[in-house]
Amino acid sequence: PPPTPIRAAMTSIQMLRGDLPSNGDRPSATLATYFKNCTVDPTQDVQKRLETLGQAFSQKFGEAAGPHCVVYGQQRFGLAVRLYYKVMEAMLKSEEKRLSVQNFSKLLNDATFHTSLLACSLEVVMATYEESSFKNGGGDQTGTNLCFPWILNVLNLSAFDFYKVIESFIKAEPTLSKDIIKHLETCENLIMERIAWRTGSPLFELLQQEHASAAAEPVETTAS
Amino acid sequence: SHDYHFGLEEHEGISELFDCD
Asked: Nearest by CB to A181, which of B2, B17, B18?
């Protein structure tokens, strides 16, 4: 017989936990070397950011799901941190191969990159936990109001910046289930069709810059 | 099918998306 929705969700959670190293709550030796190779070592900033965002996440999770659920929020954040480090390492290995460089100082000191990567990791963990509630059409004990784009408000991240990491994240983490990939694709479509066009989105500034640089370029004469 | 459609070219990666190449 097919697994019950609860059983299917439990299996997905177990797989997610199993794919993440138990000591993965800190950078591996390889990732630490990438940090050390930077012109400016990002180790302290990365650690400090995780502490700040972890507190913000737990607080908002408690507000949305109830104070008795704060511990579940902390567990989910812990899993997301392991996924964040794992995917970051895979992304850097792939970039090293592609660009033949080992110094990723600019990328690794970019707060938006780290926040986007963490947001994507959290979204994957949250979606894995809430899979059963989607399939049931109901809500689990934490409620469905925690689903995307809830995480963007919690981490104060623009949808446009979140969008940038999705494809690289999927490429870097081959163990993601089809359901999770489909979920990330749904987030991507939501951003592209609606959220990135809301007032205040950095997309407008970027479009303005592109327009200005295009206007400054001399117009090429038409080829005969 | 739920296969993800990859849009990035071989010469593009996360470094370019955050303007860091």
From this structure: B2
